Amino acid sequence: MRIVDLEILTAFLLLQIDAEVEVETETLQGLVTFRVKDLIPYQLEESDLKILRAIHLGENKVSEISRKMKLPLATTWRRVKELQTAGFVTQDADGLKLTQKGRIFANLNFS
After folding, report:
1. Alpha-carbon span 39 to 91, nearest angstrom
2. Are 84 and 91 in contact (CB under 8 A)?
3. 20 to 30 Å CA-CA from 64: which of 8, 23, 93, 108?
């Protein structure tokens, strides 16, 4: 059965189809869930990392991030939208928030 699971996952990756995958643990007492798109590499720009770090530090509006980073508002908005599409950031009534994936990258030090 595992080989079928791997074949399906491989097909999704090759075709870049996003799906939610659920995998039962070996003990059958737990379930791990992830999205296929989280396995597809995404090239972050330096400004993306700065935006993720700003959100991590509490900035939750595009205008605040733009002003703090000294980037044009349109550029900041575009990068935030791309980060949302890639699954790094979500937005609700309270503003921008990092996903688990976004928190991981915000805490990485690439220097």
Report:
1. 22
2. yes
3. 108
